[in-house]
Write a structure and sequence with these properties.
The complex is a heterodimer of chains A (252) and B (404). Chain A is α/β, with parallel strands linked by helices and 252 residues long. Chain A contains nine helices and ten strands. Classes of the chains: A alpha/beta (252), B mainly alpha (404).
Chain lengths: 252, 404
């Protein structure tokens, strides 16, 4: 799969990113470069800073030290830069976070209409194509509360894709789902990865990592402990903490 | 694998028959039967007493002699057509809204049509209710229906009707009713002669419509990251909430007049309205804040993540959800506001209650008829208040679709 990765300027550059919540240091200096079309899986124990890190990439969390450059735009206090970056990054949350007062179709078309200033017709046409792609076009007129968890998460993916982002962030997208619904969401994500989307995925679904990840990062206590290709990580982990964690999540 | 077939069991009957219900709930044993009979007797005698009082003993003359006083106070009778035009405008708009927003408005439209119809044919032996007035009343139900038919047309859109409402609600209290000093068509009518239900509705509708947006802004301001906005909102809310409405009304009607030079004096009804708006806005702000706090942070994060600007996050994501949550409290607060407008009586404005007191002093023989007058006023307040809470329930039901 690495042949899809274009050899050029990285689309995401993070250098020594540090972040504190009051006196607790959640990120102790994370550096990472991601190229166009790469699929990155980030895993690690809870509280290791993996969610916090991907949330700094679209400035849902503010980093206090270090540099983040997305597609050539540096994230700082400049609100216009933040808005530009957010337009290029789609995000999928653990709790779906669909807007419950809007229909599925309205959830998807909202940002294209208000941010991209598309006409309603154009936005709806593209929304229907995306719903087709995630396999639930028949749910367009329903409200999120009427859908199953797996369907809601697929709508959330469609909503993020509607802005035609260059990067997609997934923050534990399957952790809140019943087991029988995990596969339908992972299938959509695998399809997306194969289409060449740049993806950063925080997940413990190792089957997904094996299938499509180019690189994996193991986070612990706000630091990157180890990184490498799925082959290296699964077959020949170097660090004891990685081995221990993998043995814990792969046991069952 | 062998499957055991579980026989289907039909659900128990949803509703017992009337006879069964009576036996089960009213006559299940000897003391229940006794209580039922005693209770029924008590209810029966109370009803009989109330009905005989209402139709035989009670003297409804204060109301039948001066129904117009209760409705518009001393508004000059030769200028009454202006009130009439205003009512026609509103009934037509109610009809239009019924055609567009269907079930949201339907109960109110039907209620208004029936009320106007009843008032038109209600037997009152009084010369003030002339045939033209009755004819005018009778036009209203038809006008509502006409509006409904027009509103149903596809070319009529909601935003046109909304802007018509805005125009009417500005035109009626600011142009049609007060008029102008040098106008022959619309001569000036001082607010000192406005009164009755007209004032009550003006103050409560004005109070609700003005205090709601101010309250929402204050609630948002209280959560703002700008310190000036935040502290202004907090001090406004806490100051106003710490003072009784009566005090605020006094402040606006007396103290404001003392500080302002005589020539720039604000009309006393407007001063009272300002007091009511201030008071209600502070409470609305706190109620709305409750709704804002109930919105999970994930909603804002998701909205940020798709690139929405702050103003759109607030107006498209946060407020619609927060306001839906607080409909019951806000409507409850508006019902209180509607009833609290009677307090303007103490600053010398003759609202519905004030007019009732004035009517009692009209003739010496009316003085002992307080019961009748106050009951009549209470009935009017009850009808409107009940209607507001009914409408709120309808709104909640209609907006409840797809709630999680």
């Amino acid at each position: 799969m690495s042949d899809q990765v274009k050899d050029e300027q990285p689309i995401i550059i993070a250098r020594d990113v540090q972040k504190w919540f009051d006196n607790f240091q959640a990120l102790k200096g994370i550096s990472m470069e991601v190229k166009h079309g790469e699929v990155i899986v980030i895993f690690g124990p809870s509280g290791s800073g993996k969610s916090t890190f991907i949330r700094t990439l679209n400035r849902l969390e503010e980093h206090q030290r270090g540099t983040i450059i997305i597609d050539g735009i540096e994230l700082s206090h400049d609100v216009r830069n933040i808005e530009r970056v957010r337009r290029e990054i789609g995000m999928v949350f653990q709790q779906f976070n669909l807007f419950p007062h809007l229909t599925v179709l309205q959830n998807i078309t909202l940002a294209p209409i208000w941010v991209r200033k598309w006409s309603k017709d154009k936005a709806e046409e593209i929304a229907m194509q995306l719903l087709e792609r995630v396999g639930i076009p028949e749910q367009a007129q329903k409200f999120p509360g009427q859908l199953s968890g797996g369907q809601q998460q697929r709508v959330a993916i469609a909503r993020a894709l509607a802005m035609q982002p260059k990067i997609m962030l997934f923050d534990e997208p399957t952790s809140a789902l019943d087991p029988e619904m995990i596969k339908e969401v992972l299938d959509v994500m695998v399809g997306l990865a194969k289409s060449g989307m740049t993806m950063l995925v925080v997940t413990h679904e190792m089957s997904f990592a094996r299938a499509v990840a180019h690189r994996m990062y193991f986070f612990d206590e706000g630091l990157i402990v180890e990184s490498g290709t799925p082959d290296q990580i699964f077959k020949n982990p170097q660090e004891d903490r990685t081995k221990l964690f993998l043995s814990q999540i792969l046991e069952h | 694998m062998k499957m055991t077939v579980i026989p289907e069991v039909s659900a128990p009957p949803a509703k017992p028959s009337v006879a069964e219900w009576i036996r089960k709930n009213l006559f299940s044993n000897w003391y229940n039967s006794l209580l039922t009979i005693l209770g029924a007797t008590a209810v029966f005698y109370t009803l009989v007493n109330i009905i005989t009082w209402a139709f035989k003993t009670a003297d409804w003359h204060p109301i039948t002699v001066a129904p117009l006083l209760f409705m518009v106070g001393q508004y000059p009778r030769e200028e009454l057509w202006r009130v009439g035009i205003s009512v026609l405008m509103i009934t037509f708009l109610v009809g239009l809204s019924w055609g567009i927003w269907k079930h949201y408005v339907r109960p109110f439209a039907i209620f208004l049509a029936i009320l106007m119809g009843i008032l038109a044919i209600f037997p009152l032996q009084t010369p003030t209710i002339t045939l033209p007035i009755r004819a005018f009343m009778l036009i209203n139900p038809f006008l509502i229906y006409l509006g409904y038919r027009i509103g149903k047309l596809r070319s009529v859109q909601g935003r046109y009707v909304a802007s018509l409402w805005l125009v009417a609600l500005l035109l009626i209290p600011l142009v049609i009713l007060p008029g102008f000093t040098n106008s022959s068509l619309l001569p000036k009518v001082q607010t000192t002669v406005w009164g009755g239900l007209l004032i009550t509705l003006l103050l409560s509708v004005g109070g609700i419509l003005l205090s709601f947006p101010i309250g929402v802004l204050l609630a948002l301001g209280r959560r703002s990251s700008l310190p000036v906005v935040k502290w202004f909102s907090i001090s406004f809310i806490e100051l106003v909430r710490g003072v009784p409405l009566v005090t605020i009304l006094f402040m606006f009607s007396v103290i404001l007049a003392l500080f302002l030079p005589t020539e720039s004096r604000i009309d006393r009804v407007i001063r009272a309205l300002m007091g009511i708006v201030f008071f209600s806005a502070a409470y609305t702000a706190e109620n709305v804040r409750g709704g804002l706090q109930a919105i999970p942070p994930g909603q804002v994060e998701a909205a940020k993540a798709v690139g929405l600007k702050n103003i759109h996050i607030t107006s498209l994501i946060v407020l619609p959800q927060a306001l839906r949550l607080v409909i019951p409290t806000i409507v409850g607060q508006f019902i209180s506001l509607f009833k609290d407008t009677t307090l303007v009586y103490i600053v010398g404005i003759n609202d519905l209650l004030g007019m009732g007191n004035a009517v009692l002093k009209l003739k010496p023989e009316f003085l002992r008829l307080q019961m009748e007058v106050y009951l009549f006023i209470a009935l009017i307040f009850w009808v409107f208040s009940y209607f507001m809470s009914y409408a709120s329930l309808q709104l909640e039901k209609a907006l409840g679709v797809g709630e999680r």
